[in-house]
Amino acid sequence: MNVSKRRTLAWLGALALAAVMFASACKKEYIENRQEVCFQQEVLPIFQSSCTQSGCHNSQTREAGYDFSNYDGILKSVKPGDYKASKVYKIITTSFGIMPPSPYDRLSDEKITTIALWIKQGAQNNSCQVAACDTTSVTLSGSVMPIFDNYCNGCHSGSQPQGNINLTNYTGIKATVNDGTLLGSVKHSSGYVAMPESGSKLSDCNIAKIEKWIALGAKND
């Protein structure tokens, strides 16, 4: 084997090793446990918002055979108790062919951790008791944006947000307030596209917070 060929093989080997190391570095090797993760309130909204867009893992398309719009469908990609061995965890953390695909934004580290913890805790179809609804001090940053982030921004973010509606910034949100589509959609009013599109209707409390914020002037607060 000549020197040039040996150098080429060595270079390819180093590149492959670097790729493996990079992919491993993108995964959390240890997920610290915390209080119980609630599937219905914390995990399901992530999947419904980020994985069930048109042409993806919804009940109609079932891309790659997966429907992530419900518990039974999600469980098919999960190994309860072992998040590292779960297919869904590998897909959302790999650096190659990552999901959700472009142009949608990658899941945040916080959301990936929530999914990993839920799997680690047994991947139960659990629901947590919801505290009384408090709308006394509603703001965009503290009350409304967390709702959009959890339920809407899997579709309405990135370079090509669905419907050309970006709910990750005040300008985009205010535009939907001004034309009435925000409240009409989340309340599933006649004549509006029901949102979240592939998920359950927002809770009465979340809708009340959005309504209150709008009633207070829809400020960038």
Keywords:
single chain; 221 residues; mainly alpha; 2 domains; 9 helices; 0% strand; disordered N terminus
Please specify the SSE layout and strand pairing.
Blueprint lengths: L2 H23 L13 H12 L20 H5 L11 H7 L15 H12 L19 H12 L18 H9 L2 H6 L17 H12 L6
Care to describe what's here?
The protein is mainly α and about 220 residues long. The protein folds into 2 domains: about 35-120, no CATH class; about 140-215, no CATH class. Helix content is about 45%, strand content about 0%. It is built from 9 helices and no strands. It has helices at about 5-25, 40-50, 70-75, 85-95, 110-120, 140-150, 170-180, 180-185, 205-215. The radius of gyration is 21 Å and the shape is globular. About 30% of the residues are buried. Residues about 5-30 have low confidence and may be disordered.
Oligomer: single chain
Query: Low-confidence runs (pLDDT<50, min 5 residues)?
Result: 3-28
The helix count comes to: 9
- Provide the helix percentage: 40-55%
3D shape? globular
Helix/strand structural class: mainly alpha
Q: If you average the pLDDT, what whole number results?
A: 80
Number of strands: 0
Biggest sheet character: none
Distance between the termini: 68 Å
Question: Any idea what the radius of gyration is?
Answer: 21 Å
Please trace the helix and strand order, writing H or E for each element. Answer: HHHHHHHHH
How would you briefly describe this protein structure?
The chain is built from 9 helices and no strands.
